[in-house]
Design a protein that fits this description.
The chain has 108 residues and is mostly beta strands. Helix content is 0%, strand content 67%.
Length: 108
């Protein structure tokens, strides 16, 4: 359904962490299904994504839902920049579903 990348790479010293939260709220699905939310991290520019946190929700026709995920990533290597993104995917019957809220916020 969509990917939202944090606009700036996060520079972390060795052992330093970044805590990230993300949320997606959906409304008005026309059928039943599941929405999944993942927060992912990658060394900046490399595109090798690992999952920091994830959440999902099932929905029925006409019922709203929300997924909230949060976690902390620690740099175990030398000082390096990292990219962060939130990825939302859906399965099932979801024609007409609208995402009315999404956010992702890092905090070092």
């Amino acid at each position: 359904m969509g990917t939202w990348q944090y606009p700036n790479a996060i520079l972390l010293d060795s052992g330093q962490g970044v805590t990230v939260v993300a949320s997606v709220t959906s409304k008005y699905p026309s059928g039943n299904g599941t929405t999944d939310l993942q927060i992912q991290v990658s060394p900046s520019g490399q595109g090798t994504w690992g999952v920091i946190a994830e959440d999902s929700f099932g929905y029925a026709s006409g019922e709203p839902g929300q997924a909230n995920a949060g976690g902390t990533f620690y740099n175990s290597g030398p000082k390096q920049a990292f990219d962060l993104r939130a990825v939302v995917s859906q399965s099932g019957s979801y024609v007409g579903m609208q995402v009315n809220q999404s956010y992702m916020q890092p905090n070092t």
